[in-house]
Fold this protein.
Amino acid sequence: MDNRPINVTEALASFDEVYSPRIVARMNDYDVRIAHTLGDHVWHVHDDTDEFFLVLAGQFDIALRDHDVGETTVSLRTGDMFVVPRGTEHKPSSPGGAVLMFEPSGTSTTGDRQEGALPEHVDSTTGHELNY
C-alpha cells in the first residue's frame, strides 16, 4: 500500500473473481476490503468480531440465524450498509454486485466456523493485496 488515493471503481475493475476480496486500505488493525458478489456464499460465523458491509453496486442479501427468532434476511441495495454482530451465523448471497467491508486484519472470509461445503466460487481468504 502507498499514499496515493484509491479509486474504488478502478480497483473493482482490476479483478473479476467473486467473493475474493481485495484489501484497498489498512487503518489501525483493520482491513478495508472490496469484493464482487454473485451467488451464494456459505453459512459462517465470526466469534470475536462484527462485520461491516456497504453495498457499492447491485444487491446484497444477508441471511441471519438467531436461535430464538429463527432465520431472517436483510436485503441491501446500492448505498445501504449493515453490520452483522459478532457471533451471528450469516450467509451472504447476491444476484450480482459489489461490497466494501471493514474487518480486523486477518479475519477469514469464511469465519471461525462454517456450515457445509465451500462453493467453488467462494475464496476462503484473509484478503488479497490490491494490484492495479
Summary: The chain has a mean pLDDT of 94. DSSP finds one helix and nine strands in the chain.
